């Protein structure tokens, strides 16, 4: 699918130079829990639209869902 191609391309372009293994793990997590990650994306977009910087919005979303995010890696 074209959407899968775009998604994987976006993962490869994340700043911070993720290794190939880390990229594959991230893709697998998002594919396993797409609704959860869509919810995170909507919350992020809402915070940015409300005037927060992207960095602050990302930090708030990650901090508010830290327990859930940690449990995904187990």
Spell out the blueprint of helices and strands.
Layout: H1 2-12, H2 20-32, H3 34-49, H4 54-64, H5 66-72
Helix pairs in contact: 1-2, 3-4
Rounded mean pLDDT is 84
Order of helices and strands: HHHHH
Give the beta-strand count: 0
- Poorly predicted runs are none
Helix content: over 70%
Identify the quaternary structure here.
Answer: single chain
Largest sheet: none
Shape: globular
Q: Would you tell me the structural class of the helices and strands? A: mainly alpha
Name a few traits of the molecule.
74 residues, mainly alpha, 78% helix, globular
Structure description:
The chain is an all-alpha fold and 74 residues long. The protein has one domain (2-72). It is built from five helices and no strands. The protein has helices at 2-12, 20-32, 34-49, 54-64, 66-72. Helix 3 packs across helix 4 (54-64). The radius of gyration is 13 Å and the shape is globular.
What's this, in brief?
The chain has 74 residues and is mainly alpha-helical. Helix content is 78%, strand content 0%. It has one domain (2-72).
């Amino acid at each position: 699918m074209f959407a899968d191609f775009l998604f994987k391309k976006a993962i490869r372009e994340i700043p911070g130079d993720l290794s190939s293994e880390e990229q594959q793990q991230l893709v697998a997590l998002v594919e396993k829990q797409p609704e959860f990650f869509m919810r995170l994306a909507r919350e992020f977009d809402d915070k940015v639209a409300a005037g927060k910087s992207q960095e602050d919005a990302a930090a708030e979303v990650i901090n508010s869902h830290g327990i859930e995010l940690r449990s995904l890696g187990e």
